[in-house]
Amino acid sequence: MHSLSRRASLLCTAALAVLPACGDSQANKYPGPYGDLVGKYVPQVEKATGLTFKTPPKVEQRSTEEVRAFLEKEFNEKLPALELEGASRAYKLLGFLPDTMDLRRFMLRLLGEQVIGYYDPATKVLYVVSDTSAGRSSLVEVTIAHELVHALQDQYVPLDSIQKQRDDNDRLTAAQAVMEGQATYEQMSSMLGGDLGARMPGGWDRVRAMIRENQTAMPVFASAPMLLQESLLFPYLSGAEFMHRFKDAKTGRPPWQPLPASTEQVMHFDKYLAGEQPVRVELPPLLAGSKVYENDLGEFETRLFLFQALQDLGTSARSAEGWGGDRYVVVDLPGGAGIVWVTVWDTPIDAGEFREAAQRAAQRRLGSAGSGVADRKRFEGKGRVVEIVAATLQGKAAIIWTDVPAGSGTRLIDAAKVRLTER
Questions:
Q1: For labelling alongside 3, which of 58, 159, 166, 226 has CA 20 to 30 A away?
Q2: pLDDT in tens, 263-291
Q3: Distances in whole angstroms, Cα of residue 392 to Cα of each of 31, 88, 338, 360
């Protein structure tokens, strides 16, 4: 799910509260609002990242209303109405979202919840909410430390261009994980005065647990469907974990040279170091209906898809590992919306493990035991038909999931015409 990441200050505060921040001796005073905090954290962020600011960061204040207006504008630019509607239909068909959810309205509520500040790559300015009411002023320092990392990143890599990627949700999510993960990791390291794992009782696992636990302080977030919660947490949790391992690896380069090509590389750091690339799945023209929207899930959302249905983290993680690429298309049919989703796997064993988990997921969703043989199963129930087919595409093991309204044909594409290319 395309995520707009503005939640770092809130997600990280609980973890920071248990330990004192490092001292601010030798800090310089920068002009403008919060100049003392900027002066305190600029040298710490530079030391942590190994990079220096080419130009001094700028900080301005904005009212809560101005910040909310910015978030809405940014949301509309990054997820235009037609794209958001297409993604919403896809995630509803895959069982992630309730059929009645107004995704745009909910996302705006979610992203605006307790916002403290943000860095805008378009204006090159770090904006902080001027509201200093009880419970908010204490978060300003966390926000400034975090957003200064983004301001520094933007002087070395085009954040605006990264955020405007289209048609490759998995690659965008991976890029966001590095940018937010680095900002989270270095922000917390700066505020704690050293390595997170070493300074935090319980080590890195406790850091992750405390960031996740803090979500309960945000009512809208706590009420969000699992997909939205996990998609918004992923850049911070898995991104910071990636940075933790990246720094341990001592590569001598910034984490965007190169950026991870997939969420698979974010979650499995060894695959990032090895340069293991997923394949690009190119779907052929439809045999029935009209195309509404097309994109991919990646390993991370494939795991969520299985967990949504099975509620078994171990099975979901194992069955999604070995993902090698995917693509889905949402289709308008006479009887309603349908979807065909092609996944490609590293080995036939990986494909078989996913196929079995997907069949269990279909059985639970539709309340049907299914019919057919292992390599081609059909499930019918609740006004839907799901067909899960094993295939071989250009020598690679693949699984094709098709979900259509009852009474519709399931042959929406010609599998023989699916093309696999290098990313």
A1: 58
A2: 999 999 999 999 999 999 999 999 999 99
A3: 62, 30, 23, 22
> Which amino acid makes up residue 110?
L
Supply 56's token pair: 């001094």
| Tokens standing for residue 28 | 């310089």
- Cβ–Cβ < 8 Å for 110, 228: yes
Q: Residue 299 in contact with residue 262, Cβ under 8 Å?
A: yes
Q: Residue written as tokens 């995917």?
A: 326
Phi, psi of 145 (to 5 degrees): -60, -40
Q: Could you give the CA distance from residue 344 to residue 395 in angstroms, rounded to a whole number?
A: 10
User: Which of left, alpha, beta for 144 (phi over 0: left; psi -120 to 50: alpha)?
Assistant: alpha
Q: 111, 71 in Cβ contact below 8 A? A: yes
Distance CA 148, CA 155 (A): 11
Q: Which residues contact 314 (CB under 8 A, 6 or more apart)?
A: none
Judged against a pLDDT cut of 90, whether residue 78 lies above it is answered with: no
Report helix, strand or coil for 128: strand
Q: Do the bridges between strand 117-120 and strand 125-129 make them parallel or antiparallel, or are there none, so unpaired? A: antiparallel
What does the pLDDT average to over 36-45?
93
Q: What is the DSSP string of 359-370?
A: HHHHHHHHT---
Q: Rounded to whole angstroms, how far apart are CA atoms 421 and 423?
A: 6
| 232, 3 contact by CB (below 8 A) | yes
CB atoms within 10 A of CB 282: 12
State the average pLDDT for the chain.
Answer: 88
What does the pLDDT read at residue 142? 87
CA distance 47 to 66: 33
Strand partners, 119: 126
* Of 344, 338, 345, 346, the residue nearest 281 (C-alpha): 344
Token pair for 225: 């469907």
Go through 300-331 and write b for each residue having 16 or more CB atoms within 10 A of its CB, e for each that does not. Answer: bbbbbbbbbbbeeeebbebbbbbbbbbbbbbb
